Amino acid sequence: MDKDNRLTHARTSVYNLNYHIIWGTKYRNKVLQGKVEKDLKQILLQIAEEHELTIAHMEVGLDDHIHLLVSAPPKLSVTNIVRWLKGISARLLFLRHPELKQAYWKKTDRHLWSPSYFVESIGTTNQDAVAKYIDDQRKKEVT
Asked: Which residues are catalytic?
């Protein structure tokens, strides 16, 4: 991909801000598989569209964590990006998959995601390497 295709042109800025974001399920429960995984990916893409984000690459690893390569405008903080992605996705997954509640011992105030997350900014030179790493998450599990 050439440099011009990596740039996003907004009304008042041109930017190339990319983040590699990873977070896991609470207690590392292996619930991100099958229909739950498919719905999670669809939900995250929907959230991204609603909040002016682009998710270029996304993959679940070991059924208990997710890797994302997210591009965002400079007006959005990483904290808000992660808050939207984790919070909205958890709520919608619990609604669509009530069986997820069985994996968490609390009757009320259940949390699908661990409270922590990992984020790193990705420069143009590392973007392809990180994208390949994310895309290969499921392939690593097979070998």
From this structure: 133
